[in-house]
Design brief:
single chain, 452 residues, alpha/beta, Urease, subunit C, domain 1, TIM Barrel, eight-stranded mixed sheet, binds N-carbamoyl-L-aspartate, binds zinc ion
Length: 452
C-alpha cells in the first residue's frame, strides 16, 4: 500500500473532531465543579476538556447533568384536565428534569399491553423530555409484553388516587420479587399497610394524618425490608420508617419528596387541601428525621411524586383527591436548601440527579463521556419566588407558593437546547421513550449501588 494511501485512512486525531455543540462553564465532573468545556456529538457527551474553541460560554454558571425524576403522574390518558404529557414534560423541563418515569394510575389503569401501546403513542407525540412508562398490576395479572417495555413495576400496597390496591401476603411478595428479578425490572412500592388505614371523613390535614398513621408506613416498610430482596420504596415520610431503613439489604432503595421535606401538617396553607397527599404530611419530627436520613444515606433519592389535581377538585378538603404537583419545583427548592446549609451541594447532586439515574436510567445522570448530553445551566445567584402563575403544570397551584427557588436558566436534552434563558425552545415529540428503542434486557436498568 502506498504511503499516502495509508495517510488517508489514518484515523483523524482527536483534536480535529468537530462537535455538534460545545458549551463551557463550571462543570460538575467527578464530584466537583471545574472550569471546562463539554463537546457533544449525536446527543452524547463526546469530550470533556479544559477548553473547546467556539464553545458557548456560560461563564460563572454551573453546569449539572439533567435530573431524572423517578415518580410522576402525568394523567394522560384519562385525566387530561389535571395534566397531560405535554404540560407535564414542559413542567419537568423547566425544573431541570430531562427524564421522568410516569406512573400507571391513568385511565385505563396501565397494566396490559394495549393500554401501554396507547400511552406510548400519546407520549411520543407530546413529550418534550425523555421518559419511561411504568406498568402496574391488577387482579394479579402481570403482562410480560408490557413489562418488557417498562422501566419498572409499580405496586400499590394501600388505596390512593386511582383506587388500585395490590394485596400481597409474604409468599406472594417473595414470588413477585423473584419473578421481577428474572425480568430485570425494579419493583416500586407505595408502602402503606392497608390494615392501619381508615376511611373516616376528613376535614383537615390532622384528620387525614390520623387516617393514615405513621404505623401504616412503618408496617409496610418493615415487611418490604424483611423480604431481603432488591426493591424501591416510594415517598418515605415517617421517623419510624427511616429508622427501619438502617436495616435495608442489598438493592433496597428509597425516595423522599420535597413536600415531605418542606411541609408538615402544621404548615400555613392558602388552602389546606393543597397539602392533602398520600402518604400524608406529618409532624415536624418526621420532617427532621427525613432530612437526617437524606443526609446520611438512608434515603437515596428525591422524587417529586408530581400528582396534580385541578383547583376545583381541591376546593373542599373532604372531597379533595390526594396529591401535590412538584416536578418543576423539586430541584429549584433543593438548590436553595443547599444555599441555606441544609444539605451539602455534593449530596444534593447525588440525591437529585446521580442516584435516580443510577437506579433507573444509567445513560443519564453524570457529565461523563458516553452519557446523554442532558445538561442544566444554573446561576446560583438567581433566587426567585415560586409563583404558580409561572409554573407549567395544568394544576395552576402549588403548596410551595412564595418559597425561594433556583430554576435552571438553560436546559439541554441530548445536546439540543430546549430552554434558553428561561424560555422554551424545544418541540413536542422531542422526548423519547428510553425503554422501547432497545430489545428486552437492554433497557438501561442496572442493580443499584449500595450506599453508606
Ligand atoms: C398520587 C396521585 O394523585 O396519583 N397521590 C398522592 O397523594 N401521592 C398517588 C400516589 O402516589 O399515591
Ligand atoms: Zn404513592
Ligand atoms: Zn405517586
Amino acid at each position: 500500500m502506498p504511503s499516502d494511501m495509508q495517510k488517508t485512512f489514518y484515523p483523524r486525531p482527536l483534536t480535529s473532531v468537530k462537535f455538534d455543540t460545545a458549551i463551557s462553564g463550571r462543570i460538575y465532573v467527578n464530584g466537583e465543579l471545574i472550569e471546562g468545556a463539554i463537546g457533544i456529538v449525536d446527543g452524547k457527551i463526546a469530550a470533556i476538556k479544559k477548553r473547546i474553541s467556539g464553545a458557548r460560554d456560560y461563564g460563572d454558571s454551573i453546569i449539572l447533568p439533567g435530573r431524572v425524576d423517578p415518580h410522576v403522574h402525568f394523567r394522560d390518558p384519562g385525566y387530561t384536565q389535571k395534566e397531560d404529557f405535554l404540560t407535564g414534560t414542559l413542567s419537568a423541563a423547566f425544573g431541570g428534569v430531562t427524564c421522568i418515569l410516569d406512573m400507571p394510575n391513568t385511565e385505563p389503569f396501565l397494566y396490559r399491553y394495549p393500554a401501554l401501546e396507547e400511552k406510548e403513542y400519546i407520549a411520543s407525540r407530546k413529550a418534550v423530555v425523555d421518559y419511561g412508562l411504568i406498568t402496574g398490576m391488577k387482579n394479579r395479572i402481570l403482562d410480560e409484553k408490557a413489562l418488557k417495555r417498562s422501566p419498572a413495576l409499580k405496586i400499590f400496597m394501600a388505596p390512593t388516587t386511582g383506587g388500585i390496591v395490590n394485596e400481597l401476603d409474604d409468599l406472594a411478595l417473595q414470588y413477585l420479587l423473584n419473578l421481577m428479578k428474572d425480568y430485570g425490572k425494579p419493583v416500586i412500592f407505595h408502602a402503606e399497610d392497608m390494615k392501619f388505614i381508615s376511611n373516616e371523613k376528613t376535614g383537615n390535614l390532622i384528620e387525614h394524618l390520623r387516617n393514615r398513621p405513621n404505623m401504616a408506613e412503618e408496617s409496610a416498610v418493615r415487611r418490604l425490608i424483611s423480604s431481603g430482596k432488591p426493591l424501591h420504596m416510594a415517598h418515605i415520610t415517617s421517623t419510624e420508617a427511616v429508622e427501619l431503613l438502617k436495616n435495608r439489604t442489598y438493592g433496597q432503595t428509597s425516595e423522599v419528596t420535597p413536600h415531605h421535606l418542606f411541609l408538615t401538617v402544621d404548615s400555613d396553607f392558602e388552602n389546606e387541601a393543597y397539602g392533602r397527599v398520600n402518604p400524608p404530611l406529618r409532624k415536624k419530627r418526621d420532617r427532621d428525621a427525613l432530612w437526617d436520613a437524606l443526609r446520611d444515606g438512608r434515603i437515596d433519592m428525591i422524587s417529586s411524586d408530581h400528582a396534580p389535581h385541578t383547583m376545583e377538585e381541591k376546593e373542599e378538603f373532604e372531597t379533595a383527591p390526594s396529591g401535590i404537583p412538584g416536578v418543576e419545583t423539586a430541584l429549584p427548592l433543593i438548590l436553595v436548601a443547599v444555599k441555606k446549609g441544609l444539605l451539602e451541594f455534593k449530596r444534593a447532586v447525588e440525591v437529585l440527579i446521580e442516584n435516580p439515574a443510577k437506579r433507573f436510567c444509567p445513560r443519564k445522570g453524570s457529565i461523563e463521556v458516553g452519557k446523554d448530553a442532558d445538561l442544566l445551566v444554573i446561576d446560583m445567584k438567581k433566587v426567585r419566588r415560586i409563583d404558580a402563575e409561572y409554573l407549567h403544570s395544568k394544576a395552576g397551584w402549588t403548596p410551595f407558593e412564595g418559597m425561594d427557588a433556583i430554576f435552571p436558566e438553560s436546559v439541554y436534552l441530548r445536546g439540543k437546547r430546549i430552554i434558553k434563558n428561561g424560555n422554551f425552545e424545544g418541540e413536542k415529540g422531542l422526548g423519547e421513550n428510553l425503554w422501547t428503542k432497545h430489545p428486552a434486557g437492554h433497557n438501561g436498568h442496572s442493580e443499584p449501588e449500595r450506599e453508606g
